[in-house]
């Protein structure tokens, strides 16, 4: 479509340094041509006498803003006096205050939602604060239209809490930074661009998606960008230039295009304590001390030897007789389990390495020589049930095995069959590099899948399996590596469709 893009500049906290900002804007416009508007997030006014004097020059008309400038209201008590009314108004020529919260649609059709100030910690909210109720009414206003697809731009002063999840890490204290209500607002409004300030930090998060892959129709992605303060001495970026075609005049296919580096939605995390799924039965037993989770080799070795793999693994979780170490706790099954390391049923002679959360074992009915299993020490049903530290260790085992197989001229195929299984077993099957290409292996899975009436679908990179297969959902998961260069490991993930047609799969 030949629509003209709107040329936009976004800016972090100005704090009264208007002349510095506009000088910078003018030099950019000289180089890159005119922009249509300048959007300012964070605190626009400053509290110093210098800042106040500078503002006087603009207010009196002595100095002029060279571009249509839109600003948010006060984020602190000290500058509330500049915004005597809650609704938007022109503060001086070319500088417009948007208002406490609302939506602004420009002549181009560009839709900009905005929220001034900070989330109130108490009620009634002071004038520089908003409440979650204020934001709910904004959401309602926008989303009552059933055709609502998102907004082009969202401006907030405060960061949305948790926006960094699944993304690149920001330079902020993630414990204290951000507002939950802004996060929920951003989740519901699905802005294509979301700008925020107040943290004195420049942060451009990887774009995130607003739909669940394979389960929902594609939606436009969101980009969150936080900007630093104008003229900050550390020279952090405070001005961001971009072109945007308003979504209302965009082709649907173009609008929902997903960039290569898109990540999972940071606001829709499936965390164990948040899902509606019933808690697994082991939680009540989680408080059991560790000693019983480990098989005891003392009986046949005469002395008390640590059942480690001899490489120092397993430190810290053995219940030393002197009691100096805190025992580690692992979830336990309610009944007998073949794979719980602590269980009497476990076949000890197959175990080859024990970590803190996972262990490695030889497969009993090996498909190929060196077919191994990575298993959690605790009783977890599937990868999507694992705590993050267990996943982390599992990844370490995976990468260690990849290099091991590589040294043998092999690459590995990893798969997990999560169907009526009690205890997660990640199967690691090595195949000679010379036998087949990654494409051959993929093809084999797809063909075999079709024969079993399983529809295997590749899921994109940066996808959290939990998003597609919430705990409790059966799935079959395959992961391949390129086999050529371990540094550029190619991850290809397949998932059976969740309609339940995919079973049974042949037992290995
Ligand atoms: C106000 O902004 C517009 C463009 O955004 C510009 O053309 C105009 O010259 C500005 N006004 C002044 C007084 O500079
Ligand atoms: Zn178990």
UniProtKB/TrEMBL annotation:
**What GO cellular component entries does it have?**
post-mRNA release spliceosomal complex
Q: Where is this region: Disordered?
A: 256-331
Q: Which InterPro entries match?
A: Cwf19-like, Cwf19-like_C_dom-1, HIT-like_sf
Which top-rank group of organisms is this from? Answer: Eukaryota
Record domain Cwf19-like C-terminal: where: 327-435
Q: Which GO terms describe its biological process?
A: mRNA splicing, via spliceosome
Q: Could you give a GO molecular-function term held by this entry? A: RNA lariat debranching enzyme activator activity
Stretches of Basic and acidic residues bias are at: 266-277, 306-325
Q: Which Gene3D superfamilies match?
A: HIT-like
Pfam families the record matches? CwfJ_C_1 (PF04677)
State the family it belongs to: Belongs to the CWF19 family.
Q: State the name under which the record lists this protein.
A: CWF19-like protein 1
Give the source species.
Neogobius melanostomus
